[in-house]
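Help wanted!
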Amino acid sequence: MNDSARSEDEARAAIVAAARRTIALGINSGRAGNVSMRWHRGGGDGLLLTPSALDYDAMRIDDLVWLPVAVPAGERPGDEQPMRCDGERAPSSEWRLHRDLYAVRGDAGAVVHVHAPFATTLACLPRVHAEGIPAFHYMIAVAGGDDIRCAPYAMFGSAALSEAARAALQGRRACLLAQHGLVALGGTLDAALELAVEVESLARIYWQALQLGEPARLDTAAMAQVHARFARYRPDPVGPGGA
Ligand code: 13P
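Answered by r_m:
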């Protein structure tokens, strides 16, 4: 279903289901990670977001929070909590990362952050900090470019991490976070989740290839052909919802 066709309760249920799927799919563990969907309220741009540090099996739709995308006057980079947040629970510690992405990425209808094991393994390596995951395989194009960048390390939940992720995601739909995990965005929740799975799969194959030697790389011309084909083969759907 296109996310725009949902009621808010359906959207909340889809977010909880997606968060649980990250565990079932093996791209996340424990209480790590967070999931959001762009959700307008009363004409205002905002997002529905998972709460902080709550087990996904125990999570109910009322545990999710809503916050506006617009940055309130007076917010400071060191603020741990948003100035406005509708809900009983504290929002994910990465509320700023999610919110700030929606602010600059009109193409983002959903954001998935996970601590996927192979992507996170690579995100601990200096060579990956320096050059990301290069075009060792044509499917690198699913993330939108000729590589998947790795945002430099910053404290989880910090404004610095949000800033680093936004920079690494310029012209991309996914990036690694150094010593942390990965972020994937999509027009819909399904698209963001699918991309997170694909990035983890690419990370596993790259890791495997690195065990055997130096993987060969596709050049810019080869990747340009893949990008052109992808525009027809699997365009990213767009579907932020709300009232
Ligand atoms: P939250 O439980 O606060 O969402 O934090 C999990 C996480 O992965 C932080 O990066």
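OP: Thanks! One thing I noticed: The longest strand covers residues 34-40.
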